[in-house]
Amino acid sequence: MFLQVIQGRVPDRTAMRAQHEKWAAQIGADAPGWLGSTAGITEDDRFICLSRFSSVEALARLAARSDQREWWGHTERLFLGPVVRSEFLDVAVMLEDGTDSAGFVQIIQGRAADAGRLHALEKELLRYLPDGRPDIVGGLAATGPDGRFVRAFFFSSEELARAGEHGEQLPELEEILFELRSLTGEPTYHDLRHPWFASPRQPGRDREDSRSAAATRPTADKAGTRPWGTADQRTTTPR
Question: What is the CATH number of the domain that holds 99?
């Protein structure tokens, strides 16, 4: 599996969401090798999109299409500042069929000094999470040869994610998380409270509910914490 990450500042989330839905309906529906995408915009206007492909060649075929180039020409104008792209060849997925049912997604990015050890720990993490954190309905981990990494955790809801943060962890899971923190330092967190999903089987949708933004926005001491960690290891998101 191949993963492409696109990110940057996008103040107009309505316009970006419309472009995301347009791509899924008009281009993604006829893009062989595209496996699915998760995207969204954080509270401070940081857009991020994780797109999975069966191979590098599948992405290359997509990039060569005229309709893809035209779509990107319009979409790129929505970014305020540079667009950052990252690509990963080594991707591990947990509970793939459950990700599109998530109500809250947390994406974590950073760099580790020992890429090989990080890769091994991430695979162990994804193996223990289904039993250790039932609030997590899916997960994804990708590591580059230079130690860059991206992890995504899909939760049934933010409320359950925060509750799980304070719950008792499996001893094996605690050991893995402790070593991960020692390898990666303080990474960057992207909390997607209204994630957008797209896949070949369901071209485009999101999990925005009917509650008001005031009702769903977490309090300040929750914002940017890591719900996959333990209660005494919470940190705020680097800005």
Answer: 3.30.70.100
Number of domains comprising the chain = 1
Residue ranges making up the domain that contains 88: 2-201
Structural domain includes residue 39 = yes
With respect to residue 212, please indicate whether it lies within any of the assigned structural domains. no
Confidence band (pLDDT; 50, 70, 90) for 156?
confident
CA 62 – CA 2 distance, rounded (Å): 13
What is the pTM (predicted TM-score) of this model? 0.79
For the stretch 94-144, pLDDT in tens is 766 556 778 999 999 999 888 888 888 888 887 777 777 778 888 888 988
Cβ within 8 Å of residue 214, ≥6 positions away:
none
Backbone angles phi, psi at 71, to 5 degrees: -60, -45
Helices (H), the chain: 13-26, 56-63, 66-75, 115-132, 158-166, 171-184, 213-216
The span from the CA of 75 to the CA of 42, in Å, is: 18
- Asked if residue 221 belongs to a domain, the reply is no
Q: Which of 104, 49, 136 is nearest to 217 (CA)?
A: 104
The DSSP H or E segment spanning 169 is: none
Our measurement of the distance from residue 100's CA atom to the centroid of its chain's CA atoms, rounded to an integer in Å, reads 12
